[in-house]
Amino acid sequence: MIILAIDTSTDFLSVAVRNGETIFELTAFVPKRHSELLDEFLKIALEKSNISASDVDIIALAIGPGSYTGLRVGVAFVQGFCSVFEKKIVIVDSLYAMASKFYPSEIPVAAVYDARAGHIYGAIFGAGEMPEPIMQSSRIKLDEFAKKISSYKKILLVGFDAKKFADDLQKIAGETEIIIPQDFRRPSASVVSAIAEAKAQVGDFVAPENLEPKYLHNFVPGKRKRKKLL
Questions:
Q1: Is the pTM for the entire model greater than 0.85?
Q2: pLDDT tens for each residue of 18-45
Q3: Domain 102-179 carries which CATH code?
Q4: What's the rounded Cα separation, in Å, for the pair 209 and 213?
Q5: Residues ≥6 apart with Cβ < 8 Å to 5
Q6: Contact at 8 Å (CB) between 4 and 39?
Q7: Assigned architecture for domain 2-93+186-210
Q8: What stretch(es) of the chain map to CATH 3.30.420.40?
């Protein structure tokens, strides 16, 4: 089972090829350049893995929550790819994938991403061999999320914006020890591919026409200001 995995949910772009194990992964910090670089990254990944696009059995996508633009780029690409090659699609929650990098874990893991306007996208997973959700990915106020993690003695904080929110969360969480690990913000398409492999084995697929980014809230674009005509 050859899986092509993509994560465009943050300012990083990550792609990976898996065939029972990761064959190749390419991840780089490319803010606002996902649409420009995704094709190139995938060509490199396929060439380095010595496979063609037609060899791929499943395409896996980190579906969000995360960057509005990044998620749209990922969804549009997968829909286009599957319209040509008719591949099966597996979607993976982006915060779940991020947390999964740090398992097995002896303490709970919280994953966060900035949702703006005083909110974050957050999820909490229990300690153990695998990440079992205690709180599913949600859009939540920062102080409310801090209160949720305050019930733990220690918690691992990961995700693209973990360091950005660590101090504010710590102030509210009180005695909870918030630990930020190394490589806390970098996503991994290899992890996405491993999760997707397990989901594919139980037939958890999504049709291309039903593929939508996991925004968790309605996006309201700002109005562009127009200059007054003299």
A1: yes
A2: 999 999 999 999 999 999 999 999 999 9
A3: 3.30.420.40
A4: 12
A5: 14, 15, 16, 17, 18, 59, 60, 61, 62, 189, 190, 192, 193, 196
A6: no
A7: 2-Layer Sandwich (3.30)
A8: 2-93+186-210, 102-179
